[in-house]
Write a structure and sequence with these properties.
By secondary structure, the protein is mainly alpha-helical. It folds into two domains: 54-189, Cytochrome Bc1 Complex, Chain D, domain 2; 194-342, Cytochrome c-like domain (Cytochrome Bc1 Complex, Chain D, domain 2). It is 35% helix and 1% strand. It has a two-stranded antiparallel ribbon with strand order 1-2. The structure holds heme C (2 copies). One heme C (HEC) binds at residues 69, 75, 77, 79-81, 95-97, 103, 105, 107-108, 110, 113, 119-122, 131-132, 135-136, 141-142, 181.
Length: 351
């Protein structure tokens, strides 16, 4: 065994010792281990194909807040994904990008995305590395082309250095840009809400009686779709929102699959940090959680698609029965999902 090791070391020195010219390109990067919350499900992002490094994450963060990713050089990812509102677009029902053009969907939070395999309200992006191509090239969001973004970055010597630090040489290409963005987004884990501390038994933290009541109601009436520690079963469902005639082309999941059955289905959203991610739903139609709960209890309408049978009541109508005090308790519980550590974490903030 020992001899084998010596031989291996010898071969190693022989092999790499001769390849001196390689060395000037081999930069040392600092590997980063992802801190995974013990109550979370299995990671979905493949870290073997894109290992996290301090340099890669730092580059990803700079790119996330980089206006030059857009046509007018003002609209960065962070423009629509603001930290204080769990990286949603505060005050905007639908996205609002370059040249004041409006899109047709509400910006989603950026949190815990390493635990997902499909992205956007309709699942139109099937890999985290590919998702940013959509906002960069969408005329409603950043209105750019990838080659033009790469050209702009290549003119900047700071970027040359950052790409070299992260990937070993100063080539700036789309794969590297997207991998760096993913590295940054993968680290954006929100797992330190009051709820988390209670489920992980971290010291003297308890639900109030009202929160406890709300949690019970949530498990009975909401967790069939907003399930597990991510508060979503990641499926696409039609939750009975009245059709929004302001966006006549919206088809939900059917836009991706082409199936009639998928009309007006949307990915069940995670409810983590939901107290700060208003306005709500794919089109941002509700400003408050109270309005959301009023919708669930009395606002459901035929919207031209198939409303989820989980929402079918005994009398044949659709909705979830909720009394005024039940609504109050549910909101108290939902507020325990706010993670102030995440919302203030300097690792993710622009400055
Ligand atoms: C003009 C506003 C705007 C800009 C700029 C923007 N986004 Fe978004 N983002 C949105 C909207 C709206 C959605 C929902 C899109 C949909 O469902 O069609 C979204 C969705 C996402 C998602 C999917 C989240 C999930 O839970 O599935 C990711 C990831 C994301 N954006 C990352 C980025 C990155 C990275 C950038 C910069 C390259 C960026 N966004 C720029 C508005 C924006
Ligand atoms: C049949 C599945 C289902 C059930 C049951 C359900 N939801 Fe939802 N929920 C959804 C879907 C799907 C959406 C997204 C719909 C859209 O945007 O068009 C959603 C959206 C939401 C939103 C908006 C989140 C955001 O980021 O915009 C909140 C808040 C919410 N649900 C809370 C609840 C609560 C509280 C309950 C229980 C009273 C509940 N839901 C029951 C499927 C469900």
């Amino acid at each position: 065994m020992k001899i084998m090791q010596k031989i291996t070391v010898f071969i190693f020195i022989l092999f790499f010792g001769c390849e001196n010219h390689e060395e000037e390109y081999v930069k040392i990067t600092t590997k980063v281990a992802l801190n995974q919350p013990s109550n979370f499900p299995k990671l979905r992002y493949n870290l073997i194909q894109n290992p996290l490094t301090e340099e890669g994450i730092a580059l990803g963060k700079k790119l996330f807040y980089e206006g030059r990713l857009s046509k007018n050089s003002v609209v960065s990812c962070g423009f629509c994904h603001e930290q204080a509102s769990a990286f949603t677009h505060h005050g905007h029902t639908i996205s609002h990008g370059v040249n004041n053009l409006l899109g047709f969907r509400n910006a989603q939070p950026i949190q815990n995305l390493a635990y997902f395999e499909e992205f956007n309200w309709d699942g139109s992006a099937i890999h985290l590395d590919l998702q940013p191509i959509i906002p960069i090239t969408s005329e409603f969001e950043m209105g750019e082309t990838i080659p033009s973004v790469l050209d702009k970055l290549s003119l900047d010597t700071d970027y040359k250095q950052l790409f070299e630090d992260a990937f070993g040489d100063d080539e700036i290409n789309s794969e590297r840009m997207l991998k760096a963005l993913s590295q940054f987004m993968v680290t954006m884990i929100s797992s330190n809400s009051k709820y988390d501390k209670i489920v992980r038994n971290e010291g003297n933290i308890y639900f109030t009686d009202e929160e406890k009541e709300g949690f019970k109601l949530f498990k009975n009436k909401c967790a069939s779709c907003h399930s597990g520690e991510l508060f979503t079963d990641k499926s696409y469902r039609n939750n009975g929102l009245p059709f929004n005639s302001k966006f006549p082309d919206e088809e939900g999941r059917a836009r991706v699959t082409g199936f009639l059955d998928d009309f007006y289905k949307f990915r069940v959203p995670s409810l983590r940090n939901v107290a700060v991610t208003f306005p709500y739903m794919h089109d941002g139609r509700f400003k408050t959680l109270n309005a959301v709960l009023n919708f669930y209890s009395e606002g459901m309408l035929d919207n031209g698609g198939k409303i989820d049978t989980l929402l079918l009541k005994r009398d044949g109508s659709f909705g979830i029965n909720l009394t005024p005090s039940e609504k109050k308790y549910l909101i108290k519980f939902l507020n325990t999902l706010t993670d102030n550590t995440f919302l203030n974490d300097k690792r993710f903030s622009e400055f």
